[in-house]
Amino acid sequence: MIKDLTKGAPLKLILLFSVPLLVGNIFQQLYNLADIVIVGRTLGVNALAAVGAVAPLFFLIMFAITGMTNGFAVITGQKFGAGDIYGVRRSVAVSTVLSTIITIFFSLLCIFLMKYILFFMNVPKEIFHDAYWYIQICVMGLIVANFYNLLASVVRALGDSKTPLYFLIVASILNVFLALLFILEFHMGVPGSAIALVLSQAFSVLLCVIYIKKRFPILHLKKSDFSFKKEERKNDFAFVMEHLEVGFPMAMQFSVLGIGILIIQSVCNTFGSSVIAAMTAALRIEQIATMPMLSFGVAISVFVAQNFGAKNINRIRYGVIRSSLINLLLSIAMAFVMKYWGSDIVGIFIGKEKTEVINIAHEYLWISTLFYFFLGQIFIFRNALQGMGRPLIPLTSSFAELMIRSFAAVYLAVKFGYYGMFYAGPIAWLTASIILSIGYFINIKKLIFKYNMQN
């Protein structure tokens, strides 16, 4: 169902839009949670470490694809907010072609360089084989992940956040079933988990295509939507560049975040299987804990894109302020939960008998939750700026976050061991949130002044 976010109470719209996103993001994480729980419970610590050792690489790749498709969808949302239906179809057509070409190229590059990448990541020899085949299978299925993220982001750009949720629920259940089948019945080990992941994602793509064909006439693309006419070549090229100017910085920005996690994982891999397994479980839990913040960020992006297209700047400011207050409450709640029930939550993933691993994971989670407010503000300010078509500041903050996270991870790990590494993320979040907040307030004031002068 198409939803116009330029009318109605901003906070109510953002909350209603973000709830399905939240549930959907949680179910999307079940893809990886199924890997952790099933692999950790049935194949042991080394198998869990194999998945965890390359998980940041997988996140890096997925971050790039997600950033790119979300960036393209910003243009789609702006065209929809402005009432330009032809522009919506053209945007989807351009996004499809660009994302497909880029994903295929990126996949082939990763496949050929994978052994060198894992060597750079310090993946231990005893888990190298399983880690290699797990990530290779995931990379081979990247085109599937690209199409799901593209279709889901386009549907959300038109105001429908519920439908992608339903498809994720079905695909997540299928992923669990297939992972159990391939590991327990077919004895395929760690690679079986990766195959289950790709197949379940492919099924979600099929569901998206069928739904769009039946319910979204606005997205029924024609051959002319993909064509470039000679007399319109200059405008067509400018339209493609408009997508790349938003999509590429967002892909780079998400990639920078993934590279930071990748560097931390490379440092983590030097501390042995127990620390790797602990960080694997902790990072999965953290991903779920921060889902509300991420969901608000995506909702803000769509809300801002539509209202920017409609030139409703005051609604943008109001929505950002109210979302920040919600973020503060969520951050306090997450810290409370992690303080008192963090160990129990970790035990669900790896078994309560693995005391050493549980203690390491709980220490990391308790430290990171104290800084969740700053992480939440990163999602809010970053997506607001992107929704307004201002990708440079988010990209700058991402590079700053990468440098600080990398330096802190390496320096503090040498100084204080793996415990010092736990502070790398929080320090980076604090820095990035300051940069983004300054950039947001400068831009929103400029826009308010600009449109007040015009009126």
Describe this entry's structure for a reader.
It contains 17 helices and no strands. It has 455 residues and is mainly alpha-helical. The protein has one domain (10-454). It is globular. The relative contact order is 0.13.
Topology:
Elements: H1 10-42, H2 45-81, H3 85-120, H4 125-140, H5 142-157, H6 163-185, H7 189-215, H8 223-226, H9 233-268, H10 273-289, H11 291-309, H12 313-350, H13 355-369, H14 372-387, H15 392-416, H16 418-421, H17 424-454
Helix pairs in contact: 1-2, 1-6, 1-7, 1-10, 1-11, 1-12, 2-3, 2-4, 2-5, 2-9, 2-10, 2-11, 3-4, 3-5, 3-9, 4-7, 5-7, 6-7, 9-15, 10-12, 10-13, 11-12, 11-14, 12-13, 12-14, 12-17, 14-17, 15-17
Number of strand elements: 0
The domain count comes to 1
The N- and C-terminal alpha carbons lie at a distance of 33 Å
Mean pLDDT: 81
Principal-axes geometry comes out as globular
Residue fraction in strands: under 5%
What portion of residues is helical?
Answer: over 70%
Low-confidence stretches: none
Order of helices and strands: HHHHHHHHHHHHHHHHH
Biggest sheet, in brief? none
**What Rg is obtained from the alpha carbons, in whole angstroms?**
22 Å
Short summary of the structure?
By secondary structure, the chain is mainly α. It has one domain. It is 86% helix and 0% strand.
Name its key features.
455 residues; 86% helix; 0% strand; globular
